[in-house]
Amino acid sequence: MKAKLIKYFLIYSKAKMKNNNINQYIEDVKKAANRETSTAWFEGKPGVEQMLYHEQLKKVNQNFAFSIVSKINNNTYKILTRNKIDINYDYEILSPLLQEIKKIKIIKILNKGNESVSIIPSPMVYAYVTFEEDVKLKKNDIVRIVL
Questions:
Q1: CA–CA separation, 114 vs 142, rounded Å?
Q2: Which residue ranges of the chain lie beneath pLDDT 70?
Q3: Pairing of strands 90-94, 116-117
Q4: How far apart are the C-alpha atoms of 110 and 119, rounded to whole Å?
Q5: What is the rounded CA–CA span in Å between residue 37 and residue 26?
Q6: Which tens digit of pLDDT belongs to each residue from 78-92?
Q7: CA 91 to chain CA mean position, Å
């Protein structure tokens, strides 16, 4: 934090020497900052309610499950997992080929050895999934777990 404040002071000093223009200073600080800062940094003591990193967190309602690697047949795809996948989870597909997010169920999971399993517990594992219906998907389309 101390180094960041020193950086801001040096930027301010440079801007002050140029035109004594506070707007230029604020723009320079925004360029140097790794995120936008609120006016709390410029007007007295920063309050907890004004700092951006204290805002209420948005509740996550899905996890990235896997991405599509290739199509095997009508409704079976080779995938690369990003989280644990389970045959009992509900999933949603995000693809530019679809007009809207599509809910779907997986009816079969095969591991790398072509053995039928109900769970793949690890990320970054290649596997095969069969969806309950045929869906047009392409490489790198995303499937997420609905929580």
A1: 22
A2: 1-22, 24-62
A3: unpaired
A4: 9
A5: 10
A6: 999 999 999 999 999
A7: 17
